[in-house]
Design brief:
It is built from 16 helices and 40 strands. By secondary structure, the chain is of the alpha+beta class. InterPro entries: EGF (IPR000742), EGF-like_Ca-bd_dom (IPR001881), EGF-type_Asp/Asn_hydroxyl_site (IPR000152), EGF_Ca-bd_CS (IPR018097), Kinase-like_dom_sf (IPR011009), NOTCH1_EGF-like (IPR049883), Prot_kinase_dom (IPR000719), Protein_kinase_ATP_BS (IPR017441).
């Protein structure tokens, strides 16, 4: 019998008459197999989602998935899931795309699992589909034909990469892909979700992967509503002497025994009292002077003595106790006051030293030196204190969060002078990059462009530095494009063209006119903010790189957002200004089509917006791809010109793309013709079609050796 032993008593974890093991796996209620052998008992499980099947009294399955362990105290189910593979040889390509249907009830545990991709020049995607919503995460690893830096036992991003599981992941599919033209082309790539510690990477796995399936952990809960909504309703699962727990749970709730009780809280009889006096789990001085009560115990002293009977308080004869109390009470009060005062002074000094440590650790003295040596201090970055930013953000109240990104969380705040600002709490930065971080703060604070979000200053008194920006009130360009209300009420082409021109002007300024050229490295519609007048503001320089004046490219680890990443940058790791140009080309395609840059809900050939957009140009189907409500007889020629410009930005080779300065000039020229149509010498239809076809063909070639790996998957 399956038991929980925390005292001399034993508690069954399953319903009467129900099978409580299958092979070596224990089956606690609310899980169960079929019906009870007792006719009046009914089924052995709480809900249909907890029904299990035992084959040959050896193998346990849940919804067709092998089960290796059930933990009802932690609310976890250990199962085995298949590994996704993508293999190529000289004759063909084979792939296996496993999925795990959690029946909309269980979640992939984000604390207990990791998502991994194993293989050179490969990447994996983990998709979650639930309640008609889909979202994905990815993991990318490139070896460039060099295995010398790959280490056993670590997923550093070369040969093996791993990422955390996001919350609320259900009904998953796992996909593995390979980059074409790889030196490792005749090998397999693998992607999988695995329990922490259950897989240990070895370089030999790049040639022969030893697993077809690996363990992962599912988080389970009962019902679909939280504790507050479920209490008092029929079917409430938490029985006698138990409490409801929905903290850090994606869906529903779990039950646990109250302190001082043990057993299975889902069983009809609930949890049983622990007799602390018998188990010895008590603080009484004398074993015989312990009295058990429901959920706890009491200690008492022998007859003729007073006290609480515990090892801390002890027992004393009554006259001795009175003398001790009278003689020492005054001294205790004085001692307590003195110790408290010394402790408060110590804590205050400790806090000051800690702030000074973080200030120095985060480059505060370097920043001060640079600010003092500058001649023009009117544009200097302001150094804020931790106290100022805590007050401005109401101690970083979660209700004031206005954005989250790969480099930190952004809060809305109000400074004492009533300025509304955006406070970005950054993630921990590399200590070896402190001087570069300070240089970027100084330089970004000098940028004074109407289409770049202004950096006001920073706070360096905390373990992770915070940056303070001007507040931009009207959301992101992504929201503007995707919001249904905007699609109906603000389809004006003129607005979108102006936003594109302003964004191009800002990026041109960063590339060409700033004191040091700056490559943004993460240009996308979510990093372009809009104010109340829909004026564009380029933001989020967490991934940006300063370019030395004597260089045109930088070797760096690939970083950015799938769907916007420059294919040449992904292959060569050489970051140039033309990498921003490619990403801007995707933004132009978004403004024209209203589609997302990457959407796995779309047909296979249209998953990548860049490839689909260029395919439409090549097939002379541009106007079929334009978002409904934008196109009219007056702006056809302007839309064609912008489409040609987008195609030029999306060319595979960076040297063939225009510079941001050229792009900004062309967009301004298109706007001028829009405002002064009498100056426009309109292209005839045949000529414009020829330019569209040439612009797309220069990028989209069916014989081209490079693609993003979507075809054939």
């Amino acid at each position: 019998m399956v038991t929980l032993s925390a005292s001399n008593e034993s508690f069954s974890s399953s319903l009467p008459g129900c099978k409580n093991t299958c092979g070596n796996v224990e089956i606690p209620y609310p899980f169960g197999i079929s019906n009870s052998s007792i006719p009046t008992q009914g089924r052995c499980y709480l809900e249909s989602k907890f029904e299990l099947i035992c084959e040959n009294n050896r193998n346990l399955f849940w919804d067709g998935v092998p089960v290796t362990n059930i933990n009802f105290l932690q609310g976890q189910l250990s199962v085995l899931n298949y590994v996704s593979s993508y293999c190529t040889n000289k004759e063909n390509i084979s792939s296996y795309l496993p999925s795990l249907d959690t029946a909309g009830t269980f979640s992939i545990s984000r604390k207990e699992n990791k998502f991994l991709t194993v293989g050179c020049d490969s990447y994996g995607i983990l998709n979650s589909i639930y309640d008609k919503e889909t979202y994905s995460i990815g993991c990318l690893t490139i070896c460039n034909g060099n295995r010398k830096r790959i280490e056993n036992g670590t997923c550093s991003g070369i040969g093996c990469c791993e990422v955390d599981i996001p919350p609320k992941m259900r009904n998953i599919t796992i996909e593995a892909f390979a980059f074409f033209n790889s030196n490792e082309s005749l090998r397999c790539r693998y992607s999988f979700v695995v329990k922490n510690g259950a897989y240990n990477f070895s370089v030999s796995h790049l040639d022969k992967f030893p697993h077809t399936e690996l363990p992962l952990i599912l988080d389970w809960s009962v019902a679909s509503e939280n504790c507050k909504a479920s209490k008092g309703k029929d079917g409430y699962a938490c029985m006698k002497n138990s409490v409801c727990d929905d903290e850090d749970i994606d869906f529903g709730y779990r039950c646990k025994c109250k302190d001082g009780f043990e057993g299975n809280p889902y069983l009809p009889d609930g949890c049983k009292d622990i007799n602390e006096c018998k188990t010895g789990n008590n603080t009484c001085i004398y074993k015989d002077h312990c009295h058990n009560i429901d959920g706890s115990y009491k200690c008492f002293c022998p007859k003729g003595q007073s006290g609480n009977g515990t090892r801390e308080g002890g027992c004393h004869t009554q006259d001795v106790v009175i003398k001790v109390v009278i003689g020492s009470s005054a001294g205790i009060v004085i001692l307590f006051v003195g110790i408290s005062s010394l402790y408060l002074i110590y804590q205050k000094r400790k806090l000051i030293k800690l702030k000074q440590k973080f200030f120095q650790q985060n480059g505060g003295f370097i920043l001060l030196q640079k600010l003092f040596t500058r001649e023009d201090t009117s544009q200097s970055a302001q150094i804020f204190t931790e106290k100022e930013l805590k007050k401005a953000t109401n101690s970083y109240d979660e209700s004031l969060i206005i954005g989250r990104g790969g480099f930190g969380t952004i809060f809305k705040g109000v400074l004492p002078d009533n300025r509304i600002v955006a406070v970005k709490k950054s993630r921990i930065i590399d200590a070896n990059q402190i001087e570069q971080f300070i240089n970027e703060v100084v330089i970004l604070s000098q940028i004074n462009h109407r289409n770049v979000v202004k950096l006001l200053g920073c706070c360096l008194e905390t373990e992770v530095p915070s940056l303070v920006y001007e507040f931009v009130s009207h959301g992101t360009l992504f929201d503007f494009i995707q919001n249904t209300k905007n699609k109906i009420n603000n389809p004006r082409w003129e607005t979108r063209l102006r936003i594109a021109a302003e964004t191009a002007g800002a990026l041109s300024y960063l590339h060409s006119s700033a004191s040091f050229p700056i490559i943004h490295r993460d240009v996308k519609s979510t990093n372009i903010l809009l104010d109340d007048n829909y004026t564009a503001k380029v933001s989020d320089f967490g991934a940006s790189k300063l370019v030395p004046l004597d260089q045109t490219e930088i070797a760096t680890v690939v970083q950015g957002t799938l769907g916007y990443l420059d294919p040449e940058y992904m292959q060569t790791h050489q970051l140039t200004e033309k990498s921003d140009v490619y990403s801007f080309g995707v933004v132009l395609a978004e403004l024209l089509t209203g589609d997302k840059p990457l959407d796995f809900n779309r047909p296979e050939e249209t998953i990548s917006l860049a490839m689909h957009f260029l395919s439409c140009l090549k097939q002379d189907k541009l106007f079929e791809a334009i978002q409904v409500g934008i196109l009219n007889d007056d702006n056809k020629e302007e839309i064609k010109e912008v489409a040609i410009l987008a195609a030029r930005c999306l060319r595979l080779r960076g040297e063939e793309r225009p510079s941001m300065k050229e792009i900004a000039m062309e967009l301004d020229g298109i706007r001028l013709k829009e405002m002064h149509p009498w100056n426009d010498t309109e292209l005839n239809f045949g000529e414009s079609q020829r330019l569209l076809h040439e612009a797309s063909s220069s990028f989209y070639d069916e014989t081209d050796s490079y693609n993003l790996g979507y075809s054939g998957v």
